[in-house]
Amino acid sequence: MKERELRRRCRRLLNDLDISPPLDVVQLCERLGVSRARPIRLMPYPLEVPGPFGCWIATGSADYIFFQQETTKAHQDHIILHELGHLLAEHEPGGDAEPADFLRGPATGLEDDAVHRALRRTSYDEAHEWEAETVATIILEWASVLNYTIPRRAADHDLRRIQGVLGDHQGWL
After folding, report:
1. At 105, is the pLDDT very low, low, confident or very high (cuts 50, 70, 90)?
2. Domain total for the chain?
3. pLDDT at position 119, please?
4. What is each CA distance from 75 to 54, 69, 98, 140, in whole angstroms?
5. Which Gene3D superfamilies match (predicted)?
């Protein structure tokens, strides 16, 4: 998928999910899970270093995103957004790599086929990884600009409507 299409898809998603600055990655995952009728469960875990910082596991009933808990919040958000990038770019877990040891502990209790499917994700070609990383970068770029240029939305619904009418319309458009 071309970068232009990824940008369009991200903008549409953020608007459809009513995500506004400041970016809350947990809220984004919750809303995306609801819109897909498939929960996204965020799973912090002390993954071994060197090794992957995150992994997406698709089960029959939910998507799990494991991410390195031993890093900064900003890095965790980037890891989560990268894994969401695989979902948004409609990648499928699968491939030929052998299951790795790094998720045997955290994946305990998930559906048996999930660990096998997810751990083989490491065989994605560079295009898939580029797409996922591009989605994370697009969302973080917009968030970093909008977090500083658009006033915070009021908690009161009526006041938010007034802000929408009179305020800056950049948003995620």
Report:
1. low
2. 1
3. 39
4. 11, 10, 27, 11
5. 1.10.10.2910
Per residue, the 3-state secondary structure of 100-140, as one string, reads CHHHCCCCCCCCHHHHHHHHHHHHCCHHHHHHHHHHHHHHH
Averaged pLDDT, 100-114: 56
Residue 75: per-residue pLDDT: 92
Q: Tell me how far CA of residue 94 lies from CA of 1, 114, 123, in angstroms.
A: 19, 10, 8
Residue 44, both tokens: 């912090």
Range of the domain at 37: 3-166
Which tens digit of pLDDT belongs to each residue from 16-49? Answer: 888 877 889 999 999 999 999 999 999 998 888 8
Residues 6+ apart with CB under 8 A from 38: 61, 62, 63
